[in-house]
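Late entry, written up from scratch paper. The run itself happened at the end of the previous shift, but nothing got recorded in the book at the time, so transcribing now.
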Amino acid sequence: MYMKKYTGNRYCTGLIILFVNVIFLFNGHCQDNYLVRTVVFYNLENLFDIKNDSLVHDDDRTPAGKYNWTQEKYETKLNAVAKVLSEIGKDRTGTTPDIIGVCEVETKNVLLDLISTTTLKDYGYQIIHFNSPDERGIDVALLYKESSFLPIAFNSHRLLLFNEEGFRDYTRDQLVVTGMMDGEELSFIVNHWPSRSGGEKRSRPNRIKAALLNKRIIDSIRRENPLAKIISMGDLNDDPRDASLKSILRTKGKLKALDSLSLYNPMEKLFKQGLGTLAYRDRWNLFDQFLLTPSLVTANRKSLHYWQAHIFSPDYLMVQEGRYKGYPFRTYVGTTYQGGYADHFPVYLYLLKKVTD
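Output as recorded:
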């Protein structure tokens, strides 16, 4: 999607000018055309089909299971998720996202059903997905528009965890996809780090190990190209100020604090403002995050660069009344069907590239 960034005269300073559904505050030259790309991450809260798969722990999420997961509920969920995805960033770009990272999906088939919904079927989405060994039977995946992104390499990296007795704890892989966007190489890492089950402190070492794996992946890409443009995104089950991010990945919430070895975390500023993507016991967490290599935020305007990051939380994604008013409107609370969307709000960011004549 193209947009114009209006810049120039003193008398225009401070004005907000509308063009092609894009609002921009300016400060420099006269008119610059920019290409806008939208990148999304969304935890889909157990997107399972209704089939009983002997290779996946999905018995509870079948018509005969404790969640009474029926075809009608499945289709309602697919259409609900498709509606959300179709609207993220549309007010700025006039179209659907270019890249969508997701987690808590059972199989590639549920993603095929998702991109085949009436809402999304005409946008040319493709899927990159690997089955992971997660004990809940859930995976991460990447959806991309063929018109926006051309994958050239992708791989799934296993996170090896062991419990106190030395037995394997099976969890999600980290998905790495490298490809071409607008003539530039760009890498995406899709994450769903280990949960806080058993308590934050007790489970913390597992997320430290997930962060270490993420760092190894990023370092390996940057060894080949020190200026590699990488976006690591996902449900990290940690907040922006936690040790897995600040100590292991060396994330920074301010651009001026960046160095060549750190990562920029635009969600840290939102977290400091009291914003979050999920709520638990009257406390907001911001587990869903984007981590960017410095080359994406320091790049010149003629190449792909970071612009803004946001939480997508329109009213319809929230509980409207009662004790949990304002919380994400979930599909289930416990085993009670709510008919909502997911237990997390999605997050998204914009990439810009100046279009030369």
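The CA atoms of residues 233 and 306 lie 14 Å apart.
(Scratch paper discarded after transcription.)
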